């Protein structure tokens, strides 16, 4: 493990040196838009564009899910776990058959600043770009659900607040989901400097890491799976990536050395130009053995932090993460939680369907706890089994009511 880690450190130092040589410049924010009509090939729109969005009919009536990546990430990661793509696919193919559009927010140029303080400022700039894009393209903010991981969670807050300002303090986003909102330099910060319950009509957060994430309450519903304190089971395991075919491995090396073609998804004329650093990273990402090193280190060091997008993705089509309103993790384990509102129909649920929880939870500031499992999809109860159970319960209630009514109502004559 030591040698791969040293390799990681040396490459990171090279990237820092290149970034210093390139210097910092003003950057643009891009929006890669997906729908059922173009699930694999995004339509890329520059934040200042005021015509392209309005020309696409399929975008005009869909509910919009915005996905904001975090610090030092990109919207289509090749040598890390590409959680943005996985989440996008799960959302568009949701079992509820809702008409949804997904916008992957591309603020890579600002997110990859070595100085984290600068990156936080850049997240605010990206938020301004998003707010202006929404206003200039006449998008109803009540159609918007912004899902942000790490520093991307705060970007969602900045965007909603910027929109609130330019709309003369009339409207904010309908919903923000903070996936382990970034903690470094933002702990104990005032609520106008980070994600809080004031930033949207409904804010739900999943807290999974004490190292990289916030433990402070940040929404109307704050979920703490397994206590939320970097305690997820299974994080000591490394993932394993193998080439099944030696020919494919040789092809990857050849492509790394000689290929100048863009990725299939990078064909849009509005795609941002790659910096020297970006080009080197893309070349390195084509080498699977090196990719394996980075994925393992990334998955190990940030395992608990990364569990938040894992849980959210699993909640879309696979898991029913039922939680309990409780004062602490200790009380949860001791079964001392007191929640008179909890029931099998509007129970508090973590993840994509948190907005289906009882309205009382959604206007409060409660802490919710639950247990997960060590392996994917991290749950014991699936959405299908939960819906079957609820359906049976509703049927049972109807039959009981029918029996009671039959005793009270007069019988038919003749």
From TrEMBL:
- The UniProt entry lists the main location of this chain as secreted
Which residue ranges does the record annotate as region Disordered? 384-414
Recite the UniProt keywords alphabetically: Calcium, Metal-binding, Secreted, Signal
Q: Which SUPFAM superfamilies does this UniProt record tie to the protein?
A: alpha/beta-Hydrolases (SSF53474)
Biological process, per Gene Ontology:
lipid catabolic process
A Gene Ontology cellular component where this protein is annotated is: extracellular space
Spans of biased composition, class Basic residues?
Answer: 399-414
Entry keyword ATP-binding: no
Binding-site residues for Ca(2+), renumbered to this chain: 194, 199
Q: Could you tell me which residue ranges the Lipase domain spans?
A: 25-242, 297-378
What does the sequence similarity comment in the record state about its family? Belongs to the AB hydrolase superfamily. Lipase family.
What name is this protein filed under? Lipase domain-containing protein
